[in-house]
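Lab notebook, bench 4. The sequencing result for the construct came back, and we need a structural model before the next group meeting so we can plan mutations. Quick request posted to the team channel:

Model the 3D structure of this chain.
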Amino acid sequence: MTDLRWQVTEVTHRRVIVYGASDQGRVDYQILKRLSCKIEAFVDDTPGMQSPVPGIPICEGIRGIEAFLKTSCMADLGFVVAIGNPYGHIRRKLHGLLKGIGLFPGSFSDPTALICSTAEYGAGLQTMAAAIVNSYVRMGEQCLVNTRALVEHDCVLESGVEIGPGAVLCGRVHVMEDSWIGANATVRPRVSIGANSIVGAGAVVVSDIPDNAVAVGVPARVIRENNRK
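Done. Here's the predicted structure in token form:
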């Protein structure tokens, strides 16, 4: 019997280009393959980068994609931006560039992940193995919820946010644009994390974190400005 509490993240495009040929690209490849997607090509900005999967071509940057597309059918061709944080702003930038050349942003979830039927998400969501996204969560574009992360009820994740492996966001947490919650961090209910901020691995956040901050420890304290942009 189907459990109607949980929704299925529909893979809308079975032919996919994966932007990012390093660690996140290899992880995404395994999930997409399990979801019966065909990876047409990898893309990476690193000159001379080798494809992580023998037999699948690799392109260098946007120009490489444009050259590849001249010899490939663009109809129903999706893309996944396989770049982890602290680069949410890069994911969002590439999202716009790839849409601009006629590709379609895809969302996907590992088959073991659970997303509540009342949750809402923007294009480009990636949900890794055993992650849980609970009731009435709202997520923007290009969010990444990592392995065994828990996003509790009524949380808001703005575009470009990444939740690290094993991290826990209690109810009604608000994580603003391009921020990164590190592995095994815990954020107490109703706390806000500012834009372009980083919460360190294992931190326990009990009060609001401002924009452009790096916070670590138990309880978490801001130790420096985050000027990665």
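Helices lie at 23-34, 61-69, 88-100.
Will bring this to the meeting.
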